[in-house]
Amino acid sequence: MKTIKSTKWLAVSAAVLTLAAFRASADQPATAALPVNHYTGTVVAVDPADHTLVTKGFLLSKKFNLGGDCTFALLDKNSGAAGDLRPGEKITVSYQDAQGVLIASRIEQQPIRLTGMVKSLDPATHTLTLQVHGLARTIQIANDCNVVLRDHNSGTLNDIQTGNHVTVTYETPGSTLTAREIAQTSIPFTGTLTAIDLGERTVKAKSFLTTLKFNLADNCAIVINGRPDGKLEDLKPNDRLDLSYDEINGVNVANRIATAPPEAAQKNSSVATTTPMGAPMSY
Prior knowledge:
Layout lengths: L1 H31 L3 E12 L4 E5 L4 E13 L16 E9 L2 E10 L2 E10 L4 E6 L2 E14 L5 E2 L9 E7 L6 E6 L3 E11 L4 E6 L2 E14 L16 E9 L2 E10 L11 E3 L5 E2 L2
Parallel strand pairs: 3-5, 8-11, 12-17, 14-16
Antiparallel strand pairs: 1-2, 1-4, 2-3, 4-5, 6-7, 6-10, 7-8, 8-9, 10-11, 12-13, 12-15, 13-14, 15-16, 17-18
């Protein structure tokens, strides 16, 4: 009889222990299954040794603990590390909130961009003034700022001219707009002015055996003597022009026209100019 009771007691104890172990194992994934939240802000400070990150949003600042398997996706590299983060970068943090402790699992950098016309660029002071919707924005140029030309070709600051339309990717360390990349992707063309239509806002320019027609964009910069505030009627017969344009479905759309020193071999080119009413003008 005692043997039967002992056997039953052992069976009950085993069942209780199994149930307790099951409940304990069921509790394990509960912590790992915390919902993932997302927060977008600007990097204030990062400490790779301490595995911490401080960010600032529109209203609030947050401090994150970087998880052991936290991944980093930056603009210039898909697989980065905590040490690659810089103050002023805009990032989105994917994280879990463990009773007030914020644990980051992924950091993804978000691009901040401005598109506008180059009003001035000073390589000596590394500053760029960009005209954006009628407002002038001064941007500091980082020493290692990338210059990107058409077809992803690398360039230098010398390739960026007054009147160019560019897209600037920037960061805001210390609230200072700092350019990390300047992209000028229009097609260059240099030729002699052969025709202007003031009404249609078109010009034709010839280079050797090639003559191209350009439609002027609404915000096309006309640069006369280095100043980007010229007008179409300021252009003169046989002017040597540097143009930047985009070819869209076979139509050349000019966003910059600048006068350049004439070449003696092309001084004899003729120009036909039409007024808005279409009457030809001779020079």
